[in-house]
Amino acid sequence: METLITHSNVIGYLDHWAKATPDRPAIIFPRRLRPDGSIEDETLTFAELEGRVNRLAAALTARGLASGDRVVVMIPMSLELYTLLLALLKRAVIIVFIDPWVGLAQIKRCIALTEPKAFAGIPMIQLMARLTGILAPIPLRLTARGPAILGEIQLERLLDEDHPPAPTLDVAPDTTALITFTTGSTGTPKGANRTHGFLVAQHKALCREMGLRPGDVDLTTLPIFVLNNLAAGVTSVLPMRASPSDVDPKVILRQIRDHRITTAVGSPAYWKPIADHCVDHGLKLPTLRTLFTGGGPVPPGLLEILRPLMPNGQAFIGYGSTEAEPVALISAQEVCEETGELTRQGRGNCVGRPAHGIRLEVIRIVNGPVEAPPEGLATLAMPRGEVGELIVTGDHVGKDYYRNPEAVRENKIRDRDGTLWHRLGDVGYLDSDGRIWLLGRVNDLITQGHRTIYPLPVEAVAQQLDFVKKAAVLDLEGKVVVALEPRKWSSRRKREEWRAAAHSKLELSGMPADRICFVRKMPVDPRHNVKIDYPKLRRHLSRIS
After folding, report:
1. I need a labelling partner for 96 at 20 to 30 A (CA). Which of 332, 403, 506, 533 fits?
2. Is the pTM of this model over 0.85?
């Protein structure tokens, strides 16, 4: 891939495209849905975006923001969000990105960890934070996409100010650019330290694996992927609704048709209602060349639905984490023709082969931090076909966490030759073809005597029952409990019939359960709406048992 960056700061990619293709749309943002069903869009070209970024960077510099300062950002996907992010990168200000759905307690911990100089959020978040007093230590407060109140500055008004130009600052590759949080609902938040060098390496890896081309038009529900698109000269169409729990298939399909979307990214929970709508109404997705889904287990059945909907393209499962993205990739064709049936039989979830630039090993499962033996980490490696914890290394694998040495100790391994490995926290194995099969998270494994029960295979078998929408297996007071969310809630008598059918199915598959229970709604992660929230489910089942 041609190196487009002209200096150390990742903002150089935007500078390149603003000069090479100034009139190409950079971001298309849906402002509102008209009564007739059409969408009113606002479009910024690469040149227009660069102009906005430069004006905002100058205005923020005039208010005292400088290299190394931290700014907490809690703004939904929008033109305002990306103008701000790029302006901060330009001035080497560290972005502390917090998901809008995070609770106030987590926001408070993130603020305490990063000691920000500014906070940027929408009015509702500003109000909630102000009422609780958690913004008291922050001197500069920016409000986007709504009116500012006393003590706040409206972000959009800064674009109209006239200040001396603020040049792009050069930075070292290990300079922190962005902090994104993975966990931390209790205790110290775990903020992945995305340096400028890491972002460049990740950009190259994503473009290579996803096949992005300048001039593509991408629809993505993931905020950070838009930054990658901007670096690749790709037009980003922001979805009318980005949350998987709030997707409107008709609106998204209109965006795909109106803008002739060529690539798209979203979780399985996002694409499932869209795919079902297409099937119900005889619709296709002819403009899509590639569709990527992931963020959690992807049922083979979803890919079997999507595949015929894309007559001119291909769907893929992408596997990775905040600290390492992408790790692996597998096509819908390979899932439908080879691995999907094995998943249904309880072999695990296949996510394909390691991506270019990724070295992956399967090592012995160890509780707690791992130190490389004197002979090297290779002595912990498991042979192909045997189960262990997955670890990865590569240029686009994060090296540490922001101000959190304990998280580094728990999640990183320094080999004797100096190589730094990241523990993905997933359990799995490599098959004879070098493909990765996932069995569950290390923390979710169930041990009964000499027997280890892996959640994903059991859940995949249970989900073959026609009345099951979601399934989860967990340890509850020493018992193996399988929780099922039915496709439609029914009478107690019907649930007893389902319970008997589930027991029979699992026993025939060699996966007997001590108890099978039903829940109306399975708790899942708020980011992708696909990963089971096992701690929350355990608390719920403990209350009703």
Report:
1. 533
2. yes
